[in-house]
């Protein structure tokens, strides 16, 4: 007697169908598991460190200002303009602060809007692309109070007369009684730790070109200007990096194309800003 089992075509077809369903179910389950492992695409509200209910986690934690772009600007190149060099700029800069100082610094910036009362917990407010920003009246009033109460704001990465006009117009609403002036060579900011007598323009990475004689810098707007706004007691409230991109120098600190002397200068300026913010 044969050991073979006879299966009718109808039963065999059902078994194949169920096996096929089982295979597809298994494949679907694997695909779902893999999809869960893929990080979500970053959108305007998905950036890290926006929870200001958590107080600063270190002796020093830099705040990066969240702002809306104005009508003349787009949302940004894949991200909002306020986050343009994040997170690499912060990661490299905070590593440098840890290496060259004893400041206990948080590994990333806290992202915050001016309408958040927690902004007064952060002595240094870092703002990039101010040539594209828009601040409503409530934000302007909050920024005014922040600066007059001792806050220190550094603005960076804006270029040319049009972006200057956008920035200076907003600041004329925030601090109408205080003028924007060039930071003099003897200012304490330039000597609080590092002696910053060199005023080399710090370029954006997109303005560096590899030539036959090495790396060439072709910035579209010159000269670089270090400007500021002082209160009635001579304290610097706003440090202005105009026609330069300190954030890019931090962001591309590990890029062999980016000139080491310019990265080093950006680190020295950043550390001087940090110490000034903590001591003034």
Order of helices and strands: HEEHEEEHEHEEEEEHH
Low-confidence stretches: 1-12, 30-46
CATH class of the largest domain: Alpha Beta
Strand content: 15-25%
Distance between the termini: 100 Å
Q: What order do the helices and strands come in, and which of them pair?
A:
Elements: H1 9-37, E1 63-65, E2 68-69, H2 88-100, E3 110-112, E4 124-128, E5 133-134, H3 137-148, E6 152-158, H4 160-174, E7 180-182, E8 208-211, E9 214-217, E10 225-230, E11 236-242, H5 246-251, H6 260-279
Parallel strand pairs: 1-3, 1-4, 4-6, 6-11
Antiparallel strand pairs: 2-5, 7-10, 8-9, 10-11
Helix pairs in contact: 3-4
Structural description of this entry:
By secondary structure, this protein is α/β, with parallel strands linked by helices. 34% of the residues are buried. It has two domains: 31 residues; 217 residues, Domain of unknown function DUF4159 (Rossmann fold, 3-Layer(aba) Sandwich), CATH 3.40.50.12140. The chain is built from six helices and eleven strands. The strands form three sheets. The protein has a seven-stranded mixed β-sheet with strand order 3-1-4-6-11-10-7. The protein has a two-stranded antiparallel ribbon with strand order 2-5. The chain is globular. Helix 3 packs across helix 4.
